[in-house]
């Protein structure tokens, strides 16, 4: 049984070098995704601020105030 397990482990194609390369690739991808999340979050904040300013501008426009009952 032990020989079978040792043989199984030795026949594993995932060498330590390959594991290191996979780990580096995955870490790089995580970094790319984190940067994308940050960029999208900043873009979302800008859009929310622009929409809030737009709504505030509409709310305070003279035309809208004239339409409201006294």
Description:
With 70 residues, this protein is an all-alpha fold. The chain is 84% helix and 0% strand. It starts with a helix and ends with a helix. The mean pLDDT is 81.
Topology:
Blueprint: H1 2-10, H2 16-59, H3 62-67
Rg over CA atoms: 29 Å
Assembly type of the chains comes to single chain
Please indicate the percent range of residues in DSSP E strands (runs of 2 or more).
Answer: under 5%
Poorly predicted runs:
none
Structure classification: mainly alpha
Shape, please? rod-shaped
Number of helices: 3
* Major pleated sheet: none
Mean pLDDT: 81
Descriptive labels:
single chain, mainly alpha, 70 residues
Compact description:
This protein is mostly helical and 70 residues long. 84% of the residues lie in helices and 0% in strands.
């Amino acid at each position: 049984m032990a020989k079978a397990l040792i043989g199984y482990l030795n026949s594993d194609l995932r060498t330590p070098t390959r594991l290191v390369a996979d780990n580096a690739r995955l870490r790089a991808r995580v970094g790319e995704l984190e940067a994308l999340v940050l960029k999208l979050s900043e873009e979302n904040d800008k859009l929310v601020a622009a929409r809030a300013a737009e709504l505030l501008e509409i709310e305070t426009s003279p035309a809208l105030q004239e339409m409201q009952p006294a």
